[in-house]
Amino acid sequence: MFDFLTSTKRPASGTPVLPAAQVIERLKALTRPTAPWGIVDGHSEGVDLIAEWKIVDARWYEIFAKAGLAKVFRIYLKLDEAAKEVRAQDHEYEVSWVAGVPKLSIAVRSFKGQTKSIEFGAGYGFTEDLTIGQQYKYRFETGEIKKPIQEAVTACGWIYKGVVFGKL
Predict the structure, then answer these.
(1) 131: left (phi over 0), alpha (psi -120 to 50) or beta
(2) Could you list the pLDDT tens digit for every one of the 168 residues in the chain?
């Protein structure tokens, strides 16, 4: 009923319904070395999977640090095999940078539910030929993580259900 508020996405009519193990495989396959986000095991947090920015990955944290990213978000994913749903809840964390290394902590004003945000910017300085030019440019959008997950889930015949209130 309120799918636009919860980010809920449903599969197309007639989509074959795959077993939970294949849904997990497809979601894990979304992680690529070239993407600034990935999907990791979430059992230590009481969920099946967690989608998150690669903020602690050495290959990426320098980019995030230059961007001065102050908040990151994770999507906690829990499969409900009986309902054929992947229940998803967004969590926001604060990032503090200590000597260029990220440290995550729960935000003083924490957030759980469904969110959409975009962080972008660019930095300028001297280039190799001593002219002023763009040193870096970034754009981090929650949809960059959420949309491929929703598409993978619905392609498996499952519902991606955004959870706003309550537990997963």
Answers:
(1) beta
(2) 445 556 789 999 999 999 999 999 999 999 988 887 899 999 999 999 999 877 666 566 666 666 666 667 789 999 999 999 999 988 877 666 555 554 544 443 444 545 555 554 555 555 556 677 655 555 556 778 889 999 999 999 999 998 877 777
